Amino acid sequence: MSTGPRADHPVRASRRMADVAYGMRGALAAEAERMRSRGEHVLALNLGDPAAYGLTPAPEVVRAVREQLDHSCGYSTAKGLPSARRAVAEHYRAKGLADVRPRDVYLGNGVSELAPMSLNALLDPRDEVLIPAPDYPMWTASVVVAGGRPVHYPCDEHADWYPDPAQISARVTDRTRAIVVINPNNPTGAVWPPDVLDAIADIARRHHLVLLADEIYADFLYDDTAHVPLASCAPDVACLTFGGLSKRSRIPGYRMGWMALTGPRGPAREYTDALDTLASLRLCPNVPVQRAVRAALAADDTPSLTAPDGALGRRREHIWNLLNAVPGVRSVKPQGAFYTFPSIDVRRCRIGDDDRLANELLREERLLIVPGNALGPVAPGHFRMVTLAPTDLLTDAAGRLARFLERRTARPSRTSSSHTPPTRKRKGVTARPVGHHHDLGEPR
Asked: What is residue 411's predicted lDDT score, i.e. its pLDDT?
């Protein structure tokens, strides 16, 4: 007679998983996929995948992978091919990070592999990591999976979504190990200015913290906005800068990211030894796309896309104008990346919480967005939408949102539907809002 466990005995998941979520590909996205399988047309603006919206990679990048396939069947070194790491080091030296060497570069299967690696090498149970709110939820989830505790610092919607360094400093405890900076920011599109970055670097310096700089969108900038690498503000602080080809080269499916270490190497020796061990445990990053890193970094066509007359420049301007014309909606103009993070006036519109908003918007209007509460602790009434889609689809999306909110408006307004964007409140200065104009569409 068998004395083994019953076949129906549940297998318990790790208790840490109760605090792990990824709203971009969660239950809402699964429901959208079921709707598509039934033949329903869902307009999906939830994922930052340039390839999904017709933004193809430079031909030389694909060609470099294809031509090297016969030479890419074996393992590379654990940290990546020396030639690819040299290309990344040269890329950062050109950005002013003069001390980046090839041995400081770790290649990986996207930043989503390297960020958890950086945290697993750093954290003991209950160690704390400061993370912006709203945030890209991979960072919060990765801290939890590594056994740490995410502590969020707020970014202010009325100050262009910048954080207040004083509030960051106030959250530092004797368990704090690192500060995450996502700049340009996902989901808000904010590009943090040098004074904010300098202040964050100073906090890390005073408290001996590691800086984790997620700069995957560093090349996506609008309106002559400049991006300052966080590592350049902290040459005397251990800093890992994360980047990759998923967005810049529009090849997210190829899975190629990197992290580059700057700052004093001696004090970081124990940490880098741990990183080396974790890099070896995964054997190596995928080899075929490593062969394309140099070609991809040389093919810098992002500025042509983000220019005012470029595809991404037009799309960002178009959806920003449309959203601010919807009664009850406000959107801070994104200066980087390819997302917008609007807010809905919850006093005007009966939308419930953010999950209910997103679920009902999908069910009633077949529009898939990311609810704000999936992106960290933020005030109710927010959602993230990608700005990658062509203008006709963005117009369609804004129309669906407007119809949805109109049905939930407590007191429908008969006045003009044009709304002024939030004013910018920074260092006691309130800037005048920019006037509206509507893009008539982009040529095909």
From this structure: 59
Query: Low-confidence residues of the chain, pLDDT below 50?
Result: 412-413, 415-444
Integer Cα distance of 426 and 444 in angstroms: 39
Same fold, 17-46+307-411 and 59-298: no
Is there a contact between 45 and 369 (Cβ–Cβ < 8 Å)?
A: yes
May I ask the CATH architecture of the domain 59-298?
3-Layer(aba) Sandwich (3.40)
The pLDDT score that the predictor gives to residue 220 is 96
Domain ranges of the chain: 17-46+307-411, 59-298
Check: CATH 3.40.50.2300 for 17-46+307-411? no
